[in-house]
Write a structure and sequence with these properties.
Elements: E1 7-9, E2 21-22, E3 35-38, E4 43-44, E5 47-48, E6 54-56, H1 58-62, E7 74-77, E8 85-87, E9 96-97, E10 101-104, H2 112-120, H3 122-131, H4 142-146, E11 149-151, H5 155-194, H6 198-204, H7 213-216, E12 223-226, E13 229-232, E14 236-239, H8 240-243, E15 244-249, E16 261-262, E17 266-269, E18 285-287, H9 289-294, E19 299-300, E20 305-308, E21 316-318, E22 328-330, E23 334-339, H10 346-354, H11 356-363, H12 377-383, E24 385-388, H13 391-431, H14 436-443
Parallel strand pairs: 3-9, 17-22
Antiparallel strand pairs: 1-11, 2-10, 3-6, 4-5, 7-8, 7-10, 12-13, 14-24, 15-23, 16-18, 17-18, 19-22, 20-21, 20-23
Helix pairs in contact: 5-10, 5-13, 5-14, 10-11
Amino acid sequence: MLNEWDSVPLNQLIVPGRGISYGIVQPGSFVAGGIPIVRVNDVRNGRISTSSPMRVSPQIEAAYSRTRLQGGELLLTLVGTVGETAVVPDSLRGWNTARAVGVIPVRNDIGAHWVQLVLQSAAVRDLIESRLNTTVQATLNLGDVAQLPIVLPPTQEREKIVHILGTLEKKIELNRLINQTLEAIVKALFKSWFVDFDPVRAKAEGRNLNLPEHLADLFEDSFEQSELGEIPSGWKVKTIESIAERVGMGPFGSSIKVETFVAEGIPVISGQHLHGFMMEDNKFNFVALKHAERLKSANVRRGDVVFTHAGNIGQAAYIPESSRYDRYVLSQRQFFMRGDLSQVTPSFVALYFNSPEGQHRLLANASSSGVPSIARPVTYLRSIRLTIPPKPIMDAFENLVQPLLTQFRRNLNEASTLIALRDTLLPKLISGELRVKNAERTIREYD
């Protein structure tokens, strides 16, 4: 890689008197109203999740004042999923971190965002990978973090690079927030119609359905008993097996590993693609066509619903018709369902298993010890029962949410393009191979 600028070890760029540290070693049990801490799983894709933080007692936290967050620090994951980074917002002032998260207080004249960019570059990520201790699980030592080389262009150049890549990040984040809202709307409507049965309850009680007449007329005004309890009259309880053309598994053992990856070929779906009810169509590893043929039973296509049965279990997302590829291969931790389209739609199945009721049923067979997993996932999935509405109601729901799903997919595609552009520009800008002036022209349409 061309690099005309000097580099210095990271520990030379730290706020005097603070140092690079890791957080609370033994946080103990959750304490309601305690001090929130950031864990490894809370740091993803440059963001810190604050939705359900671990909380520790003030007495335990008091012993780790060196990692008490002030805002503006750079966090780096050190154990398990190593190398994820995020800059701490001011709103997290007073929080702390877990042992597996390093706190890097970067000097203001350098800026945490600049160091974050450098740590995301391929050259530094490769260096981090080479320093990992993998005896039990991947672990990065603070001594190695302190020596990571941070390239330092002139201040003005650094600020412009941060602005250029920050522009892309802001657009990616905006798309994520819009999709978060769209997803919440679609999930809320699904739950109302197909889990809580709100239109039927309103009709049975003589209340206004708040629906156009042609939609209100589709719903009955009474309930009947079933093996799942009270359901709307005329609706059916069916097993997944009875509404599926096929239920299958990802490959066993080590059929897919790093050595089998190729530059271009058939994309491999893993857990990172299943955040939300619709599969994210970017950042794939690929295997050769011949390898995919050998794993034909683990091949999936548009319209299939993919689940995770090990690790981050309970994920469920469908592959939309607008996906970039005709064919995918599942990784070892996935299984899938191909629905009978005369009875159900892919989005209906994925939304059901993203609802509280669907999650409860999907995880009812999960292990409570060791690595989280669903036992006998294919057999178990086939046995799950759910309530199926008459086809006109399901079709009406699809028509109602289709514009939202189309926008959701469009945002995913644009984010994928922006991520690819960012990842292309990042090493070239940091190394000096690409000048700021040329990069600014490239991203002008997104500013």
